[in-house]
Amino acid sequence: MNKSATIDFATATHAPVQTQALLDLVAGEARDSLLGVHEVLRRELPQGRLAIYEAGGGSSSFLPVDVLSRSHVTVVDIDEDQVRNNTYADEAILGDVQTYRFGSDTFDVVICYNVIEHLPDVEAALLNFRDALKRGGMILIGAPNPRSLSGVVTKYSPHWFHVWFYRHVRGDKKAGLPGHAPFPTLFHPLVTLSNLDTFAEQHGLQIIYRKQYESPRYPEMRLRMPAFAALVDAAARAMNFFLPARTDVRHGDYHVILRKH
Known about the structure:
Layout: E1 5-8, H1 20-24, H2 29-44, E2 50-55, H3 65-68, E3 71-77, H4 80-85, E4 91-94, E5 107-113, H5 122-132, E6 133-144, H6 149-156, H7 159-168, H8 193-202, E7 205-213, H9 217-224, H10 226-241, E8 253-260
Parallel strand pairs: 2-3, 2-5, 3-4, 5-6
Antiparallel strand pairs: 1-4, 6-8, 7-8
Helix pairs in contact: 9-10
């Protein structure tokens, strides 16, 4: 495998094994879908020790506690601050997930959560993930829906607006600082769910979980800024009225699990 720089976490103190990412989600469709993802992973993963590749690794894991506790986790991230913020990896590598390659049949699971929307070459990254998986291994993708209301706003608004939203609507005072979201968003065509479906079919990957859900930003706004959230919800309902049945522009995110044939 090619290798840039490695930060060994073997001597670092591990934080308590908690799915802080789940705890941080307010009640709503996003949390329900992540719980559904956890059930699929528990059911489909082999017993015993697991090898996990996390492509882009922040400060908390999206894996269920019982899976994380029996896993050797390798993180690859291009941002040194993100690498250093990670508290649960057994090995953290400073590198680009689009070009960094592991040997074949290395991992049981690849986690790619809130990452592909930031990549200029999503196809290269996904093929690297597939090649690194063992037969029957899985890729978990969590990503925003570019065709939703929040996706369109994100795509066509400047980055300073994203930072403002995180700081003043979400209440994240560290937003935009080194190693902290939001990061510049590119929306490669493969981030669109229908294109991702086609890619999976063409490259030996079976979809075993697929769920679009209301972005967690909506329940967050309803809790923090109810008047503003009511206006956004009203605008979303008006847009939905003119769209095909079952379309909801608030479905701003999705989870997909792909299994390697």
